[in-house]
Specification:
Lipocalin, mainly beta, 22 strands, 2 domains, 14% helix, 10-stranded mixed beta sheet
């Protein structure tokens, strides 16, 4: 799943009276029960005597964030709407005004109970780490040391991410790791034992080469991990499968050519379910993120478009999407005017997803074992 909220710095308007605003001002904190526990801090101040300003942080994911769009306060009920992350937080304030019992929803509903913190009990909000120097493009890193631990069985969602130079996968199965490492949809993997799609792991480790690895270099690290720790052996075969062909629509593409570094990294980081800003991305990059995170079958780039592009795609997802990320998509809002994916791709990008069959390369597993002990 996209990083679960959070790196949120949110300035939020509240339709509430000054008295209500005063009731909620202060520092609130609690732990979100996600794929791994995430400590959350919400600082609320009275902005102008009639509304509130709030800043929301995920301590364990740094200090950057996404703006929330609205908060409503009615009696003891509080609701934060974070449109950019397609998320909400709803809670009830306790009678003494020192606790909020609530639920954070982003694809699935997760418990987030908050308590009012004092200067002595408030958690320290970390300073976002300085950007690291990119690793040389020719470098082929491996994990210097990697820790593999079983995930919390109640955890939801999954992620592939970095904290500083630390490469992490969260709540991932062996089949997830193969899909990520070799850029294939899970439908392109066969011969896997049942445990490879049921047992979930958290992987953490640093590269053996200085610098910040690219996504491609992260994939190399996971490939070697699969060989060394999971004893993965496989061969490749061409098979005809049901796919989505990414093609140019009848009116032509409406994409903006990127002015970024042609050799630089692409950025395709979901801001929420159905909210994908892309920068410096090729059509192959776009096809890969859609097949790995969103769609239920492989995506084949047949646009014939070269180069890199900047664009944003916003749509209302349905229940068949984001399954690969372990996310359950909530029912769409009845008053939403945002189109579904296939319409949005045509309207916003001038592209199409055509359901068809095509020969694609698949991975056939010859052998795999549960990971060795750390």
């Amino acid at each position: 799943m996209k990083k679960l909220l959070l790196w949120l710095v949110a300035f939020i308007s509240v339709a509430a009276s000054a008295a209500q605003a005063q009731d909620l001002t202060g520092t609130w904190q609690g732990t979100l029960s996600a794929a791994r526990p995430l400590r959350v801090v919400i600082k609320i101040t009275n902005a102008d005597g009639a509304s509130l300003r709030a800043v929301m942080y995920s301590i364990d994911q740094g200090g950057q964030g996404v703006a929330a769009s609205a908060v409503s306060v009615q009696g003891t009920s509080v609701k934060l709407t974070i449109a950019a992350a397609n998320a909400t937080y709803e809670g009830k304030v306790s009678a003494d005004g020192n606790a909020i019992t609530g639920t954070f929803t982003q694809g699935s509903a997760l418990t987030l109970n908050l308590v009012r913190a004092s200067a002595d009990t408030a958690w320290t909000i970390p300073t976002p780490p300085a950007a690291a120097t990119p690793m040389p493009a020719t470098a082929r890193p491996v994990f210097e040391v990697a820790t593999i631990k079983p995930s919390d069985p109640n955890a939801q969602g999954r992620a592939y991410t970095m904290r500083g130079r630390q490469v992490m996968t969260i709540n991932t199965t062996a089949k997830d790791l193969i899909s990520f490492a070799y850029e294939v949809h899970q439908e392109q993997i066969s011969g896997a034992a049942g445990w490879t799609q049921n047992d979930r792991f958290n992987v953490t480790g640093q590269p053996d080469i200085e610098g910040l690895p690219s996504v491609g270099q992260m994939r190399l690290m996971v490939q070697k991990l699969l060989t060394d720790r999971f004893k993965l052996a496989f061969h490749r075969e061409k098979k005809e499968l049901s796919v989505y062909a990414l093609t140019v629509g009848p009116k032509g593409p409406t994409l903006t050519r990127s002015e970024g570094d042609g050799n630089g990294l692409p950025s395709l980081m979901f801001r929420g379910l159905g909210n994908l800003p892309a920068r410096n991305a090729t059509m192959a990059d776009f096809a890969n993120v859609m097949q790995s995170a969103v769609l239920d079958r492989p995506v084949v780039d047949q646009t014939g478009l070269a180069g890199r592009y900047d664009f944003s795609l916003i749509w209302t997802p349905d229940e068949t999407q984001f399954v690969n990320m372990g996310v359950r998509v909530p029912p769409p809002s009845p008053d939403s005017n945002t189109p579904g994916l296939f319409t949005a791709v045509q309207q916003q990008l001038g592209l199409k997803f055509d359901a068809t069959r095509a020969p694609v390369e698949t991975i056939v597993i010859d052998g795999i074992e549960r990971p060795t002990e750390n």
